[in-house]
Amino acid sequence: MKHLFSTYLFTVCLLLGICHISLVKAQITTGEFKNPPINYRPIPLWFWNNSTIQGEELQTQFQQMITKDGYGGSAILPFGNRFRPKYLSDEYFTLYGKAIEEAEKAGVKLSLYDEYGFPSGSMGAINGDDTPRFMNKYPDATIKRLDKIEYSVSSGGIFNQSIPKGDIMAVVAMDTITFKRISLRNQLQNGKVNWNIPQGAWKVFFFVCVKDGDPNVDYLSPDAVKLFIKETHESYYKHFPKAFGKTITTTFFDEPTMYRASGRIWTNDFNDKFIKQYGFSPDLLYPALWYNIGEDTAAARNYLFGFRSQLYAEGFMKTIQEWSEEHNIQSTGHQDQEEILNPVSVSGDLMLCGKYMGIPGIDKIGGGRPTEQFYKVVSSSAHNWDKAFVMSETYGAMGNISVKTLYQIAMEQYTKGINHLIPHAVWYNDQSVTFLPELSYRNPLYNKDLPEFNQFLSRLNYVLARAGSHVADIAMVYPIESLQAEHYLDGSKGYYEGGVDIPNVDYTHISTILTDSIGKDFTYLHPEVINDKCQIKNGKLILNNKINKEKYSILIIPGMKTISVANLKIIERFYNAGGCILFTTQLPEQSVEFGQNRKVKSIIQRMLNNNKGKGKTFFIPDPSSETIKRILDTCELTFDVAFTNQQPLNYIHKVYDDCSVYYFANLGESPRNSEIVLKGKINPVLFNPHTGETSKVSFNHQTMNNTDVTILTLPLQGNSSVFLIEQ
Fold it and tell me: pTM value?
């Protein structure tokens, strides 16, 4: 069989340990697929938990993780109140050095976990030994909170009030009937505000940034995050500089979030940076963080919440990635509570965070958290910003799940764009496991099956963890701007659950219908990417990346009350060029930009009612699998992948050097003989990741609707998967 493709991406080589600085040619071969190089093995979290770590036992466990379990290294996670030696002490680094030595002997890799316990940012204050190291050393570099102090005042009187402690972000008077707002910043004198109150139903607000008391680093401040890096990442580098880029190839952060500070996380220089970026002061926008301020509400919230999410993504994720690149490694990790439908005060803008990570990531964890609904958000972030890898920390706190469940979760993740699964976890002290399962040779539930399972993951990594193009006919707008427009602080759900339930939000519902019910893969498009990276050519909406170029014939605008006029103009051009547009649940009616609500409604009505464009538009007020499938059929498109007369399989299609790779998974219990129609003339071979075997598959080429297609029947047992790889 001919070699299928080659890849020339530095970060791919770096992560998998194939190279250091030089670029290499990577090829899929039947021999390497059956027995992938050790660099493709999964790298688990290794909890150094509730014990005094001993060098000899450390070495034994590490060796057995490689030889008995089939892992490809580890990410060492100090954890628990009884962990010894002291975190970041000389004794600690001596033991860490032994792990590096063992990794070098075995030819495997380490990931630098950046915290003692989690979340990242305190150096051990939470779920560690309760010593707030970072806060003790840098008290002014910890998390800040935005407080609101408000007064109802009477017309004709004088408002005379001392300013509260903290950094004043804004002092605003607002007429609660007309929504007229007046900045009282010029009335600040001698520590007080003096203001003659005009006629109206006025309230006066102080918006103050204060130190919250949370021991974690100020995630919104690059300067603060650099101090955290100095104390953690730099300490490892000083002790083991030669290991970076060779044995230590990634760094991993764990569960930072914006729900801290009661969901009101802020930072002192917010206004200064805002003015520098936008050219005007945000003072008069601040009331919108809590209240309706009239027609400006949606735009004001997008400016403030959107900028806060930008500061978060740039302050924490980007700062760590820049340090990582300077030290020859890549950054990955995930946030807490990524599974919240309204992420504005939790993960902020989940897609935007991935923009600034070397390897965007997510956490599949127990406790009824529906992470599977958000795999596509994180993998789409990677596709939007041209990144090869997508990480998932997987299985934590799920209990003693079955081996079958291990496979099912992995197969679903890899069909939805994950290609770097980090197992949670191996535990040094397996008699004191806080979050089951314990995934090592010592656990009788898994020890027989674990090597085979890790070989399975290695084969998935070998094929899918590469730089190439994701193929999908459908794009969906990521509705973050609408979520920001409807969000407000101190919502009734509480900060941990996202605060505010927003009506008509259906993007994850549509995602599940597409991928799990009707067999249609898709990519979320971030509003920024629609504006900056998307082009329209030959009736297609094109994501114009250097490597991951995607071409869409269909665009879904999920339930969104708010959208940007800039996005809508591009969407209308796509419609006029022949694109198929689906609106679901809620039509947009207000603008991200100030004063443009009428324009939004005008463009929407023009597309829905005038029928002058070459494309088609539909509004589906109550989307279901049946209605969406019926509408997609009317688009008269030869889809990239289609299933005939049977429940579809989960799948992903990637292209590497003009050669197609399809991964299909049957996540159900019953066997399926799926008739599949692939767009184009493909000569496929079956690659079985469960066995490592390759085999032929019967297929024929036909022409349908003036398009060449390949038709085949794919037999798959329940809970199994297969690659179709083009010869």
Answer: 0.95
